[in-house]
Amino acid sequence: MHPINRLFCLLLLVWLTAFTTVTVAQQSRPNIIYIMADDLGYGDLGCYGQQKVKTPNLDRMARQGTRFTRFYAGSTVCAPSRCALMTGKHMGHAYVRGNGEIPLRDTDTTLAQRLQANGYKTGMFGKWGLGLNTNSGAPQRKGWDEFTGYLHHRHAHNYHTDSLWQVRNGQLSVLRLSPTQYTHDVIMDRAFEFLQNRQADKQPFFLYLPITLVHAEMATTDEDVRPILTADGRSPFPETPFVKRPGTSYSSQKNPKATFAAMLSRLDKDVGKLLDLLKQYGMDENTYVFFTSDNGPHREGGADPEFFDSNGPLRGIKRDLYEGGIRVPMIAWGGARQARQGEQCCLG
Question: 26: pLDDT confidence band, cut at 50, 70 and 90?
Fold first, then answer.
């Protein structure tokens, strides 16, 4: 395992906030946005070598900020990687070491709790994966003022479901949905709403976006996939349809490659919208934005990491302890001042 860079980022966040002296005015504390894609590989972004799908907004973020080339996830799969981020503990010390729906304990302190105790408004939108509604890892018990998304890993395999979970006013409750809704739309709408509401209260905030793209199932919207398809509605890629197997959660998909490309493009588009909103709301001067992934690329639900060269020059994918399973993209964007300087630093 290589936890050093994950811990470096965690310590950087804490340094920016928790150790701010009481003599510093609250409004001078930086806002923090941490975006963590799901199963996005080292080679999936244009700024890391991706050739088949364009990611202009993330590439721009990398040009204006800092692009890390030796940043490592906390683990090769979802839950322990998220545990490492939230607690700062590598797999030698962390309590959650696998995807068995093991909750954080009462004794486990999260980054959100630290920031909350230091005057930050905290919001999480996406997949939690570190506790359910009935146990010690429930999000409202671990430092989150607001939350919309999935608690259970397997629930997050479905982009069309009849419900998500939400935390509002300190209470965790079910958010009823129509199965026709694309859950990523719901999650991002709530995240943008959280950001908009921060204009009025002037309280520093920590916005954590553990979004489910580009994890299986391979599912998207007509609007997102339309630009990927040819004029006659066909996939531009050589497709092998994915057929749902009995007892599994991933839906059948006629064009899994085109759908993956659409999901990746949508992820990039939403990062661009978020950066634009920061500027619109006058928050870009005092906000740090981080973008990464929880582990290497997957081969599930029809996804094809070989075709997209999702691990770039690295060996292995998700669940592998080779570099491709744990080395992930990391882009740090230091606000409008850094963007104007056009800084770029590749730490290799």
Answer: very low
326 three-class SS: helix
Count of domains observed in the chain: 1
pLDDT value, residue 291: 98
Question: Which residue range(s) make up the domain with 69?
Answer: 4-10+31-347
* Count of CA atoms in the C-beta half-sphere (13 A) of 341: 11
Strands 163-168 and 31-37 turn out to be: unpaired
Assigned domain for 18 exists:
no
Prior bond of 101 cis (ω within 30°): no
pTM of the entire predicted model: 0.92
* pLDDT average, residue stretch 122-138: 97
Residues ≥6 apart with Cβ < 8 Å to 141: 106, 131
CATH number of 324's domain = 3.40.720.10
- Angle, CA 289 vertex, CA 136 and CA 76 arms, to 5°: 55
List 148's β-bridge partners, or say none: 125, 166
Determine the Cα–Cα distance for residues 346 and 348; give it in Å rounded to an integer: 6
